[in-house]
Amino acid sequence: MQNNIVQLIIEKLETKEEISPFLFLWTQIDKVNIEVLNLSLDLCEKLWINKNFLFKFENPEWKIKVKDIKQFLEKAFITPSFKAQIFIIENISKMTEESANSCLKIFEEPPFWNIIFLTSESESSILDTILSRCTIINLIKDNTFEINQAYYNMIDDYIRNINHDLASYIFKEKLEKDNYINLLKNLIIYLKEKLVFLDLIEQINEDINWIQKNNLLPKYVVDKYMIKLKNY
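Given the sequence above, the corresponding structure tokens read:
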């Protein structure tokens, strides 16, 4: 898996491999909708996709009706004049069971030129048959993860190659185990908010648990991710 969603999609398009829908979960639905739109616009720019081939389903009513979603997804079966086309369906928990069932085929076997982004506040009210067809990106923050702005800023500067203050801090300071854990938690917060290196999040969580329960050397873990972030 590549370091972020954009690179993963580009790789699959090059090999004409089907791209499973991405389901983004966040309790702040308005914010996740904005993030997904920005991600889609970034894809349009990188893939030279005309923005007329970015389709967004915004449902003004309480429920997403089957006739409306079927009409929206009809375009998915038409080969675009560009490398790909993008579909955004916001807040899919509003789908009726009939609406959700009508999407199963396109979600399970999407023509390779389709990129489908879905958003919801949570997995509840979404059919298991939908969930099983999606790559789930859980952006819901763990309440135990409190942002440390200094760590967050150093991570941002390091990943964007602005400076290497983070590396200097880890090398020079005498850090305790809690410092390393806090740094790793802030790394998770950053990756979720920026939608990058998402494939590392589960591994980082596992390493945090190992540090807490099994005395895994925390500096070794942090150094490992410093190298990974630079080598992607």
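The mean pLDDT is 87. Try to locate this feature in the token string yourself.
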